[in-house]
UniProtKB/TrEMBL annotation:
Domain of life: Bacteria
Domain Glycosyltransferase 2-like: 4-108
Pfam families linked: Glycos_transf_2
UniProt name for this protein: Glycosyltransferase 2-like domain-containing protein
Organism: Barnesiella intestinihominis YIT 11860
InterPro entries, alphabetized: Glyco_trans_2-like, Glycosyltransf_2, Nucleotide-diphossugar_trans
Amino acid sequence: MTFSIVIPTYNGADFIEQALLSALNQSRPADEIVISDDNSSDDTLAICQKYTDRIKIYRNLQGPSGFVNGWNHAIEKATGEYISILHQDDLLASTFLEEVEKALAVYPDVKHLFAPCNYIDGDGNNLQDLDYCTSEIKRYTGIEYVRAYQTIGRPHIHRCPGVVTHRDIFKVCQYREEAGHIADDDFFYRVGQYTDVVGILSPLASYRLHSKSETGHLKNMQLVQRLAHDYIFQVKQWMECDFMGKKEFEYFCSLAARFAFEEFYYGVKYKQCTWEKEGKDYMEYLKLQDIKILIKYRLFLLLTSFLGKNLLSKLLK
């Protein structure tokens, strides 16, 4: 079996060398390491070019194309049988590929594997303990994997660093731009329709939280808007699908209602008509689908109608 580690980059000079070295220093060496750059304007490529004898570098001169397209461009360049995406600010433990290869020896038919990741800050300090890491190698059915992803960990049992997917899966299940900010989650929710999944329950990667990350650089309202849209997308996608169980579907409904309400709330508070209308439209959509809207959300809508948006906006400030 062969492994490709692909690193999509865009203006990642702060952390790219650390990420790249973690890929280069694997105890079971990667068969190839691919840098797929989305037309960076900082020193990202200059840093990567220090290692041109050991890596492949591709540049999308039409970029930037967005983070999801960046992932897909990187996957397209990989030639290995198994592909692991490593974000430019994250890290892999030195034994990551070694442990993945051991797991595949036990479950050779499985085409998607993950290991949990530590959460670290910009300086590499650990931010939380992973109390569910038992060091076992565990096989999940597709729906068991969805359930684990939704309910274990803070917020999930794993994130994007530490995932390996067989290239055949990408022929039927890609990262989707329309899934928005949670395009990685969206991929993980869908992949179990095509393969069982193996979890190597040891922290073999590190997910970095910092102000310049895709999430970190967003202001709170921008993030709320994105997530309201993205969870409504998940509700629509899974509403008529037999794969997703009732509790798993309710997870999407709950988050869609929460972020739709928050968008409406902020719209009223700050007199932003676009936010207000979009959030209200999302909640109306959920109500039409007989999806539960919490009483406190409904009461706020009634209060808005009773007091008027202008008066309520003053009261909220």
